[in-house]
Amino acid sequence: MKELTSFEGVHCANCSTPLEGEYCHHCGQSVHSVLRPVHGLFEEFFETFLHIDGRILHTLPPLLLKPGFLTLEYFSGRRVRYIAPFRLMFVLCLMSFFVMHLAANVIAHRIEQKHAHVVLLDNGNDFAQAQTPKQVNDLLERKLSGLDAARQLGNPNVVTQVDNAERKLREQANDRLTQLGAAPANASTAPGKPSGLAQNDDSDMDMPVPQVQISWLPDIAKQRLTELFQGIRDNIQTYRHGSPTARQEAEQRMITGVFGALPGTMLVLIPVFALLLALVYLFKRRLYMEHLIVALHSHAFLFLSLLLIFLAGMLSTWLKPHAAWVGYAMGVIQAPLMIWIPTYLLIMQKRIYRQGWVMTLVKFFFIAWCYCWLLGYALLIAAVLGMAH
User: Is there a domain that residue 187 lies in?
Assistant: First the structure.
């Protein structure tokens, strides 16, 4: 009673409502003033941080290990100690795609390094298989393109090896051209541009794509589609015929575009998944919002699992050269997580909708089949948008 009587006669500074505690029950404003010493700001910061951290500790373990637990808690009204479903899903979505983007860059860099290593070890013996001067020049162009990609790694030792390998390849190519009675290959090719690059590639890249002509579309939609196709054509042309630097930039643009478009496409996919649940469990007479909460928690679990899988893969890649057993242990974690994903979703569906195992399995596989098609279309749309980035 002492705590309640201490607020007797005190009114909210915002709406003048009599206070019964530290927060106004009418507008929610705190009784404490924002004008306080600096140490008070630090205390408030740490209090807020620890409160959020506590909610994370209460949310993430059951999300990963207890199928359907958070959803049933949310339905029963126990929501304060857990992170809200949409916020949880959205944050995990962004984090998972960010880590996936990093993993894609790491994989692409390792592939470039392996390709550069293979190209540097090339001794040019396959020039002897070429039967015409054109075949020799085309083969030399591909090899020089690979060397230029290796040169872009920027390592001084690699650059020296690239120069030596290029000189050796040109000698091998010229020897074969001499045997075929043709003129030697041009040795004045600038670094980063293969000697056999077609002369009309730049002009083709500068040509605009035709304007989209669909009668029932508004002009702004036609313009956006035309820009989309133009971006796709430019990136593909640059990736296929540009210099190694331009190809690398185009590749990074497309990868960044794909991962930038994925969160938006997944946000569109979640209410569609909830609609699937509503149709399959129509006779359960549940509100659409309940199915939407199930969809949000299901996708939050998917994103958390993907985040852990890709983190384990990246750690395995980084640790294997330094501590092989730790790297292999991190790699082994990925398989149980992949098996746990469908198992978790099946158990979650069974616990929430409370049907027998036979009906649950039938509906689970039907929803999974439909969702795979929807996910495929979503990934295709994200890939198209990424290629146009």
Answer: yes
135 is a domain residue: yes
CA angle 353, 68, 310 (to 5 degrees): 130
Same domain? 258 vs 379 = yes
**How many Å from the N-terminal Cα to the C-terminal Cα in the chain?**
63
User: What's the pTM?
Assistant: 0.67
Number of domains in the chain: 3
Which pLDDT score, from 0 to 100, does residue 81 have? 87
∠ CA 71-73-79 to the nearest 5 degrees? 105
8 Å CB contact between 292 and 274: yes
Phi-psi region of 28 (alpha: psi -120 to 50; beta: other; left: phi over 0): left
Does the pLDDT of residue 313 top 90, yes or no? no
Packing angle of the helix pair 288-319, 38-65 (nearest 10 deg): 100
Contact 147, 192 (CB under 8 A): no
Q: Are residues 93 and 146 in the same domain?
A: no
70 in Cβ contact with 62 (< 8 Å): yes
Q: How confident is the model at residue 58 (pLDDT cuts 50, 70, 90)?
A: confident
User: To the nearest whole percent, how much of the chain has pLDDT over 90?
Assistant: 22
Does residue 257 surpass a pLDDT of 80?
no
Domain-located, residue 225: no
134 and 264 fall within a common domain = no
Q: SS3 for 222?
A: helix
Please tell me whether residues 94 and 119 are part of one structural domain. no
- Between CA 314 and CA 323, with CA 318 as vertex, the angle to 5 degrees is 125
| Whether residue 310 sits in one domain with residue 256 | yes
**89, 296 Cβ separation under 8 angstroms:** yes
Cα dist from 305 to 34, 87, 298, whole Å? 41, 17, 11
Enclosing domain of residue 48? 2-53
Same domain? 237 vs 319: yes
Torsion over CA of 81, 284, 289 and 305, rounded to 10 degrees?
60
If DSSP codes are grouped into helix, strand and coil, which group holds residue 30?
strand
Q: Collect contacts of 16-21 with beta carbons under 8 A, ≥24 apart.
A: none
Give the SS3 label for residue 345.
Answer: helix
Angle between helices 324-353 and 288-319 (to 10 degrees): 170
Residues 6+ apart with CB under 8 A from 369: none
How many residues are listed for the chain in this entry? 389
